[in-house]
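Researcher: Predict the fold of ABC transporter ATP-binding protein.
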Amino acid sequence: MTQAPSDSAGVPGGRPPGGSTDSAEKKPLLSVRDLVQEFVVRQAGGTKGGVVQAVSGVSFDIMPGETLGIVGETGSGKSTLARAVLQAPRPKSGSVRFRDMELTRLSGSALISARRHLQFVWQDPFGSLDPKWQVRSIVEEPLAAHRAGDRNARRKRADELLDLVGLDPARYAKRHPRELSGGQAQRVAIARAVALEPSLLICDEAVSSLDVLIQAQVLNLFERLRRELGLSYLFIAHDLALVKQVSDRVGVMYLGKFCEVGPGESVYKQPLHPYTKALLDSIPSTEPGAARATATLTGEPPSPISPPSGCRFRTRCPRAQEVCASEVPQPRELGPGHLVACHFPLAQSAPAGQAMVPQDTTPTTAKAQR
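Model: Structure tokens for ABC transporter ATP-binding protein follow.
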């Protein structure tokens, strides 16, 4: 949740599972403060056509051994946030502190060395794997880049990693990515990501392209690796039901900002932000006789080039009042570690007698031209 920087442990509710020590609980593995990422839009002739406000003042912590899940609609800024943490590209402003290193101030070999402990798993495994390389060479690549051991040692390590992710080296080491299924290719990508024994994995829609059965298998693999290797995760997805399975805490993003952050069970059982509730209401139920999921949001998200004043969700919010247009809601902790940025959270009743802010029905393309 977006908060002012402080010298405390950071976002409430961040705790590693499994009973870590007090010192570990007080010291985040990753601490992000007031992160801003913007992109200039160029028109014909190279003239400036506007600025995309992709991420706007986001703050959060990830503790050792913890998984923070980030959800939101397409275009909410989730993937841009992940790339900004990795410094690819660098954010416009803000702080990204990882293992006591300020990543925004590192460059060259120092940044490469820091990234050894901060690895990325991409959405499309085939797009992230070199089609000309054999699987063993792909897994060996980070070891060779960081000069870890000799050739025989790297080969042995690659085979161990393939076995770790459930692929028999004797069967798969000499295959090319085109000879793998989607799930097998993603396992290879995961093996490569953990080759250098990182502390944190950033998973950007890492299972979104897989079918449901393979999704479950890969999620189980992520959980097993967390236990065995002591990993932490920044897990990004648009599927709330999926994120619930793997996350200790969940952050809900809308148009470049966190609108709600809290423990997974708390966010799912008692959402405080109207946007979170709308996302949860859209999930089909598997219970017999349950009501069908209904879409509670109307209209398209506003353009990030020209976001609404005040609360960015107000143009689609059924509880919006005049104050929502004039004041940016600040995060408030309404439960243990459960923060919400809303003037009228669901835990409270909307005040009566105030005129509702008219719904903004301007098409997104028209807003982008303002």
